Amino acid sequence: MLSQRQRLLIAATLVAAPLFWWGLGSPEDSDSQVSSTSVEQVDFFIRSAEITRWKNDGNVGQILTTPLMQHYPDRAAMILETPLTRVPAAADREYLLSADEGTLPDSQEQILLAGNVQLHDNPATGLPGLVTTDQLTLYPPRDYAHTDQPVLIKRGQDTTSAIGMDLYFDQQRIDLLSDVKGEYHVQ
């Protein structure tokens, strides 16, 4: 029979071998692995967010809704999931602007929209219009939006394509920047 001291020595040997194999004997290696795989942190999030921007005259400037808004302090920005922005243009008109994702910097001077960006124009009279692009920067305080990406505008059967666009919501005006091509159907 083995004495209690011999059993304790055998158990310690059996436990020590796997510990050294797992690297618990060298803490420098495990510390370097933890720091090299650091993950960007979210300091807060908001579900079902609705943000209303008011103009100086007290009228609604824009209403931004998103199912999920996450703030990343290292980026100094909020990441928006499928944002939808309603922009009132006149008493009878409202633009709807949607995208797959958005970025709202802490300065809140602009909103960067990316992925399947769509601007819906549904006037009280006339045909509805749709403007699509891959990326758009919205400047809420200036009622202005800009892109350097390809743009496609559809209204009924008519289409216009261009590279780059400046959009002035308050003036209800679109300036196409280059390579403008159109196809129009007479009715």
UniProtKB/TrEMBL annotation:
Membrane-spanning residues: none
Gene3D superfamilies assigned to the protein according to its UniProt record, in alphabetical order: Lipopolysaccharide (LPS) transport protein A like domain
Protein's name according to its UniProt entry: LPS export ABC transporter protein LptC
PANTHER family per record: LIPOPOLYSACCHARIDE EXPORT SYSTEM PROTEIN LPTC
Keyword Ion transport in record: no
Protein keywords: Cell inner membrane, Cell membrane, Membrane, Transmembrane, Transmembrane helix
Species whose genome carries this gene: Marinobacterium sediminicola
Source taxon at top rank: Bacteria
InterPro entries in UniProt: LipoPS_assembly_LptC-rel, LPS_export_LptC, LptC
Keyword Cell membrane: yes
